[in-house]
């Protein structure tokens, strides 16, 4: 993994994914390891973020490295017309690693091709969010004891939700059964269904919860991605399509965990928060340990 960019989750092999998951457990047990002394990481966020940016920056600080960058591209020379190519080349002269979030699909791949240092994709449009997926896998392994042979229900915006695209690709190594639950307008794009079919991974599509909650080991809720809709009325039509309430978990499996990449809007009612099956806040905390594992592996210090 040393020197490798992480743009798509498919950039990492099954063994590399498992190594990150194991390493995250090591960092959770020993969170203050000063492995990045003298290293500088650039954190370039062209789109808003709370968890991804702050957990990456916390991870870098815990590892003893330094962070430069911006959380709002309006404070960068992008506003003067500087291209992503020039910005990336410049920043790669300053830092040992770039963490980048950008609204355009393919932007992270492009940046990785012009950068002289590795690039971690912190989310590119509706495409991929691989570091989220690695923390999701760490959360699944931690709560289920295994990644293998699980039934995973994924609910909400399957069209624009980049976290679910990366998640299904990573989980395809572990023989899951997927239930995709969404409004028709937001169903899983064909390219991801073809990916699963080519790997003989079972999936079913649903337009209502039905019995899926009671069959699942993992219930992965997602927000309808308002910022990706061209027409506000189209968002209004689907924004309340799937709302999880505590009573709906009454016949779910004992081992079920409810995950959500967050932020949530209204798709998980607050009455779920105190249910022991709600795991989304711990999931976000796992992001720090997982990102410590990703950064230290790519920089070759662990
Ligand atoms: N899960 C996630 O990407 O959250 P942020 O948008 O707050 O970074």
Can you describe this structure?
The protein folds into two domains: 9-128 and 287-298, Aspartate/ornithine carbamoyltransferase (Rossmann fold); 130-284, Rossmann fold. The chain has helices at residues 14-29, 51-62, 84-94, 107-114, 130-144, 162-171, 190-198, 212-215, 232-238, 280-298; strands at 40-45, 66-70, 97-102, 119-124, 151-155, 177-181, 202-206, 218-221, 257-259. Helix 9 (232-238) links the parallel strand 8 (218-221) and strand 9. The chain is globular, with a radius of gyration of 19 Å. It starts with 13 loop residues before the first helix and ends with a helix. 37% of the residues lie in helices and 15% in strands. The protein has a five-stranded parallel beta sheet with strand order 7-6-5-8-9. A four-stranded parallel beta sheet has the order 2-1-3-4, with helices on both faces. The protein is built from ten helices and nine strands. Helix 1 packs across helix 5 (130-144), helix 2 (51-62) crosses helix 10 (280-298) and helix 5 (130-144) packs across helix 6 (162-171). The chain is of the alpha/beta class. The chain binds phosphoric acid mono(formamide)ester. Phosphoric acid mono(formamide)ester binds next to helix 2.
Q: In the CATH hierarchy, what is the class of the largest domain?
A: Alpha Beta
* CATH 4th-level superfamily of the largest domain: Aspartate/ornithine carbamoyltransferase
Mean pLDDT: 97
In terms of DSSP E residues, the strand content is 5-15%
- Ligands bound here? phosphoric acid mono(formamide)ester
Label the structural class: alpha/beta
Question: Could you say what the CATH architecture of the largest domain is?
Answer: 3-Layer(aba) Sandwich
How many β-strands, per DSSP? 9
How is the biggest beta sheet arranged?
A: 5 strands, parallel
First CA to last CA: what distance?
10 Å
Low-confidence stretches: none
Provide the domain count: 2
Classify the helix fraction into a percent range.
25-40%
CATH topology of the largest domain, anyone? Rossmann fold
Order of helices and strands: HEHEHEHEHEHEHEHEHEH
Q: How would you write the strand order of the largest sheet? A: 7-6-5-8-9
Radius of gyration: 19 Å
Molecular shape = globular
What's the total helix number? Answer: 10
